[in-house]
Design a protein that fits this description.
alpha/beta, 7-stranded mixed beta sheet, globular
Length: about 210
């Protein structure tokens, strides 16, 4: 079983159309994923996507911590942000093995925009966070870090380091799989990551076309 998980938390910029566009890209370019799950607190009816209710009212990006909850998936699992665009063959993303995207700004630190694990090996992330979410959501709870924003990936990185778990980086395992969106580039892909204010709905050219493709 190979599963892709994304998270849609109500009240923000994203809605069901983002889930639908991500799912279309995954089915087109990474069909090795048997299942696509969306963890959400919203009513969701998207073809080919299984809705899974969020159990906690953790705000904004903190809802992503539920992706690691025990028993949610079996086999290879990939957590993928909703603003990811698939433009070409991306089967490598479904390969087995613990991995994460290396942060664009902070080398040697992971990003939770893309993470991959096997079975329940990262259950401890959800368990630790759920035991005291207010503590972990407090800035400074992870000690000195290079990140300007205290978010889920700061806590994930901290908890992994605390347990001695060091995922390999997707960029090293799968060279040329990930690309960071740059409006000055004509071509991107095959998995386009957005950082800062750039998002698929304000992108241009082939990336925007790939995102909107029915």
């Amino acid at each position: 079983m190979t599963t892709l998980i994304t998270v849609l938390k109500g009240g923000g910029r994203y809605d069901a159309s983002w889930v639908e566009r991500l799912a279309r890209g995954v089915r087109r370019h990474a069909p090795a994923f048997d299942t696509i799950l969306c963890l959400t607190d919203l009513p969701l009816d998207v073809t080919g996507v299984e809705r899974v209710a969020l159990r906690h009212d953790w705000p904004a990006w903190w809802a992503k911590m539920e992706a690691f909850r025990p028993g949610l998936t079996r086999g290879t699992t990939v957590l993928c942000d909703l603003d990811t665009v698939f433009t070409g063959p991306a089967e490598a993303l479904a390969s087995p093995g613990l991995a994460a995207m290396e942060d664009y700004f902070h080398k040697g630190r992971l990003s939770s925009a893309l993470m991959r694990w096997e079975g329940g090996e990262l259950d401890f992330l959800s368990t630790a966070f759920a035991a005291d979410p207010a503590r972990w959501m407090e800035a400074g709870s992870c000690g000195p870090v290079p990140n300007a924003v205290h978010g889920d990936q700061v806590v994930i990185d901290h908890l992994l380091r605390r347990e001695g778990v060091r995922p390999d980086y997707i960029q090293r395992l799968h060279p040329n799989l990930l690309d960071f969106y740059d409006p000055r580039q004509a071509d991107h892909g095959p998995v386009v990551i957005f950082i800062g204010d750039a998002k698929p709905d304000n992108a241009a050219g082939p990336v925007r076309a790939a995102w909107e493709r029915p």
